[in-house]
Amino acid sequence: MDDQGKLRFAKLLHHRAALLEKGEAVAPPLVSATTYHLPEVEGASHIYGRMSMPTWEAVETQLGILEDAPCVAFPSGMAAISAALMAVLTDRKRLIIPADGYYVTRVFSAEVLAAYGVEVVEVRTAAIATADVSGGAVVFIETPSNPGLDCCDIALIAQRVRAAGGLLIVDNTTMTPLLQRPLDLGADMVVAADTKAPGGHSDILFGHVATRDTGLEARVRQWRKISGAVPGAFEAWLLHRGIETLEVRLERMCATAQIIAERLSGHRAVTNLRYPGLPGDPSHVLAQRQMTGFGFLIGFELATMDAAEAFLAACPYITQTTSFGGTHTAGERRARWGDPVSEGFIRLSVGVEPAEVLWAAIETALHS
Fold first, then answer.
1. Are residues 226 and 307 in the same domain?
2. Is the backbone peptide bond immediately before 147 cis, with ω within 30 degrees of 0?
């Protein structure tokens, strides 16, 4: 994290202090009310729970400090993604998405958006920088891609999309605004699943949309209000608490991921290793330029499906689960979800375990 990121995070930790009265709780209160006292509506701070809640607003303020932009909270990452796309695919009917990105985004685009007349074009992440973005298309990217960890040049793509009259949305779930800042690089909107590293403890679903365009923000907020895609107050409260340790967790996770990736690179059982922090990785140079850290995700292949499953089963410090970004190191064989990867491909999400203990368990499991 760079110096500006450190300043933002310090501000995040203390932003409530100036608003507190003597004896008031430092942690934000958990307010789950759906109705509010309304002898008259005009001037009321809150009207109805589908429109706003104080605990959402506390998290939106917190996220807004990290993004340096207004944020709209949602009950999951996919709720944020779908809201962003539905808000902009009204008069625009061409959508470019990563063919190697998060599979649910592809399913939503193919099965829902296409039914409403949207032309969905899939392009691999490594090729999006040179793809045809003409005609005012909405371009949706992930970088690094999930699960393959290919990177694409956000600033270059943003420039090309803007010149063509389009809009750029970046899914920044894998990096968080502490490690990568798409809005600063020219993106129109950012979406993220705060279920992952920001929440950090694998106990909530949450997401957000961030944008500095007031018109886009208004459309996203209107979509949330009308569709009812609203987060719960308890989940918002848990996320607020989780974010306060995000910086220290990311520091540990990324440092350990670098160690694990470097050691995996020399292991005879491992092929096609991907981690942007490795000098030999195809995305390394770009990652150095547009990221302030290399993340906690590692991708690699073992020889067969059976070898991958045996490795995951043998390692006591890898939780076999389908998410990432939590305190526990997690791994899964991604081909089981239909991702365009080999049968032996493993996505490893490095947690906060001590690095040497984790590596010893991984090394032993690779030999099992």
1. no
2. yes
